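re: ur question from earlier - yeah i can do the single chain one, its not a big deal. heres the input i used so u can compare w yours
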Amino acid sequence: MELNPRHRHILELARQKGFLSTDELSKVLSVTVQTIRRDINELCERGLLRRYHGGAGLESSIENTDYSMRQVLNREEKAGIARMVAEEIPDNASLFINIGTTTEEVAKALYGHKKLRIITNNLNVAGLLCENENCDVILAGGVVRGDRGVIGESTLEFIRQFKVDFGIIGISGIDNDGTLLDFDYREVRVAQAIIENSRQVFLVADHSKFGRNPMVRLGHISEIDALFTDRTPPPELVNALRAARVKVHFLDKQMED
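and the output i got, formated as tokens:
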């Protein structure tokens, strides 16, 4: 289910401050402490916050939110991001699409395209696009995770055989200094290979990824050509994007260099 506005506000504050006391949240949001405790309990049950004595803080830096939960979080925003990406992809193009719920939305948005050749390590993406007779889908081999992402040394070697027009990648977190972060070092290595072997790299990430703190460094925002998101990034990240001359597309707007 989607988050209500107060839950969204709590998560935004958690990303900004790291830890939030129940008393502080009660004052900021003008609700009772009991209401805040219920909110924290629900967000912790959904894996979005971690409960500490007297309040709550950010989720773990070593373990991602459950895949079934990620599928429904910010679904409308992800679909909007995907439509923007699809508008930038011409027919008769080759592309990588990696693991992630937002990249899966991109696959849905690309369904009407013609003569695409798609290389992916995401079984969900392959399943979505193989039904389109106008697309050729090439699936990487390797170890299959619970979210149907494919990873491992054989995946890495397979990706490195190609040089494509577009690499479309998702991410678990973007630090305000522009560092790209994720949870699984094996997934990160595949994403790095995609970046190295794509003529243009498109990063898809909704606003919940800004300031998030997974522990594995994938690279830096300067290694991508365009970021597609739903909201204006935090000011520090905006500065990093401008310094790297990355074009940012967000719903209803566009930030130029």
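The chain has a mean pLDDT of 87. not sure if urs matches, ping me
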